[in-house]
Amino acid sequence: MSVLIKDNVITLHTKNTTYQMAVNENNFLAHLYYGTRLDDSVADECGKMNYHTLMPLVYDSKTRELSPNVCPLEYSAYGIGDFRTTPLKVRFCDGSSVCDLRFHSAKYIDKKPILNGLPALHDTNTESQSVEVCLIDNIHDLRVYLLYTAFEENDIIARSVRIENHTGKDIALEAVLSTCVDFYEDEFDFITFDGKPFSERSMHRTPLMDIKLTAESRRGSSSHQCNPFVIACSKNCDEKVGSCYGMAFVYSGNFTASMEKTQIGTTRFVMGINPENFTYLLKDGEVFQAPEVIHSFSNSGFAKLTHNYHNVIRKNLFRGKYADAKRPILINNWEATYFNFNSEKLLAIAKQAKTIGVDTFVLDDGWFLGRNGDGSSLGDWFVDEEKLGCPLSELITKIGELGMKFGLWFEPECVSENSSFYRQHPEWVLQAPDRKGVLGRKQWVVDMANPAAVDAVFKMMADILDNNNIEYIKWDFNRYLTDVYSHALPANRQGEVHHRYVLGVYNLLERIHNRYPNLLIESCASGGGRFDCGMLYYTPQIWTSDNTDPLERVNIQYGTSFCYPIISMGAHVTASPNHVSKRVTSIKTRSNVAMAGTFGFELDLTKEAEDDIEILRSETEFYKNYADLIRTGDYYRLTANTNRYIAWQFVSGDKHQSLAVLVMQKNNIDYKPIIQKFSGLQSDLTYRVIIDGIERERLYTGVALMEIGLNIRTVKYEGESTRIEILAV
Fold first, then answer.
1. How do residues 609-651 score in pLDDT, each as one tens digit?
2. Distances (CA, A) of 164 to 169, 176, 281, 289, 702
3. Degrees (nearest 5) of the Cα angle 654, 663, 715?
4. Which residues are catalytic?
5. What are phi and psi of 497, to 5 degrees?
């Protein structure tokens, strides 16, 4: 069994890991161990640390003195002497915030429960096992339920928390984090994936210090600036060796994740909803469900941790038609036309796209009434037939006659100040009373915490989707949340707006998903501003960044790959010079980088030379030959992104097929040879090697390719790239 409850010890096993906790003498639920699989052993030696006290607080003179600030607690609450970050803070009706959680019960759960209103890992084939632990504050009868699910094959432990109010009075939740892990050592590095628009998810590695290290967002979305995926790792950890612990938050709003070293050399690792500007009124008898955190552990470096996350996200987070299916190769008209288009121009691009193997045409921003720039009409989702020169259905029919599917851009969560939506219902946006507010991109954020506003947006979208054959949506979101005030909520519930906003977004996405089960949705938030597991539950691909320069993109995709599957990363071949950086790069390099993602196009093909069209046709055909490998294969980062070149590799499950790509980031002016070693191959298999279409005369064993490598002579200068096919004989 993956879950075992015995003698007050609760153990969760996966294929290679063990997570263990126990009830101590004071009836606290203590964390014992998380790491390499222990089989049937109990980490009881760790539990003895519970009584190593520096400033003891006496709980029961008949037992022993206990310092909650030292005890490795599985989940603690504010006010009892645990001065580390406490996952739970409650304000009771008498104004007190002291909450003393003690173990009450633990039980097996046959099937992983659904988290109402929230995305989470799902288990349709009962390959996981769950346990629910109940902690109670006996004075107030507040009940805290800790849910753990072990996904055995992929070394995943999913955790979430449910709070039930049985106090007889209303209470206020002032902090509810979803997970807490106390380690018995402090020799860690803390890895975060930070950045900004056009430079998302850069890997930053910081040694754990005597201060708390925190990654967080307070912008209303998971943000460009900080991603809700973090790693704690040993000092020696790299791609192949060392221990590392990952935490991925299945949530798309404000979050916090932190590590802190204690006074006695232990470490606390937490993640959950950011407590800033969070206060949730929980009436007697009501329930609050916190989002899920996906834990994983690897004792063999980052690559194994990455494979754990990629596999569980593809199998147990993605849903619907495209969860395990080839994604369409699409062309988006945005960088080709911006707002300046009509149906004739769009059809010309589509016709050329069909000749190179594209199967889906996507009409981006500017198709609705009055939208000829970013200053008006957002939220008025009515087709501008005059601009198109025909009804939308006619354009879709003509696209279909080319043998192509049709996709459409929406930004459902925002509204222009100059729009009928805002003029008719100004109370349906986030805006504090008697304040002018802060416009961003000349638009407001729709109050997704207001069910009436959500219903209105859904109706407008459904009117378009019901009456047109649309098989793809690009779901954009180009603002952070400011003026966070909902006219639909009373004064004592304004601290709930950030969270209720996210729930409203999920509600709208779920309704779209249920009504149009074959629809593929690609999320976007000014590029990669909301790239998280919460969105991937509804939108199995996300536009990785608005920066499409391939030499910039390789770094963005590098950081993103640590948690998120390659097939979740929207990536396009765009024009050269690039519209952002003005850098000139070859079609080959632009294609090689875009193949480390969903692969598509975003340029005006009618302006490309015929020779370039032929190259694009060849690149598309090459991608199609390797689409299954890229979608399902194991992904390896062969270099750090700080090298003068960056390289990555896909390997099939049977080890018979592999594709590697190398991109030069800096000129190799000293002519230092590139000897590239590979990963993931079968040592005793024999492989043939094809570099940029030219097969090498000799054969290589897997062990030789991994331990000796290949001398790559095909790249020298910045922006050049090469790809290596490694195929079993």
1. 999 999 999 999 999 999 999 999 999 999 998 889 999 999 9
2. 12, 12, 12, 9, 55
3. 105
4. 476, 546
5. -60, -45
